[in-house]
């Protein structure tokens, strides 16, 4: 039923030369769980887990693991990607250059995930790795190692905002940023080395 209302060409993806890797957070270990999708239809739970926000989504049970959104354990998996030997990397961020993630001081994750202390620790320390990675991404972009696309001004919407006008306005800003950076992106992709 789902694939009838929201059709997807699974065969085209299977035949594509593109490698798709998901990243989720393992609740038992608190670490990132990377998974190469070979058969999206059979492995849909890995994709679902990678986008399952803590506190609002159910834990995804797959292959004996308990998984949620990969952003907790590895917000931008640039080091993992580098380890694969990817030569050209395009990173699209959702926050402007001046954004600094603050520590999550809420007790709700501790209560909600009390059975998973390593995951709770990962949530509590997420801002440290997040801010370090964002700084590293700027340096990598400036050196030509990656190509970075990010909003030019602060994003004021929350991740749970459902105001269609605000969401569409943000979409348009992202679209315009994509158009603005396209010539520079093409130049980066055409460079050898």
Task: Summarize the topology.
Elements: H1 2-5, H2 10-15, E1 20-26, E2 32-37, H3 44-50, E3 60-62, E4 65-69, H4 78-83, E5 90-92, H5 108-112, H6 117-142, E6 147-149, H7 164-190
Parallel strand pairs: 5-6
Antiparallel strand pairs: 1-2, 1-4, 3-4
Describe the structure.
The protein is of the alpha+beta class and 193 residues long. Helix content is 42%, strand content 14%. It has helices at 2-5, 10-15, 44-50, 78-83, 108-112, 117-142, 164-190; strands at 20-26, 32-37, 60-62, 65-69, 90-92, 147-149. The strands form 2 sheets. It has a 4-stranded antiparallel beta sheet. A two-stranded parallel ribbon has the order 5-6. Strand 3 and strand 4 form a beta hairpin. The longest helix is centred in the last third of the chain and has 27 residues, at 164-190. It is globular and about 50 Å long. The mean pLDDT is 92.
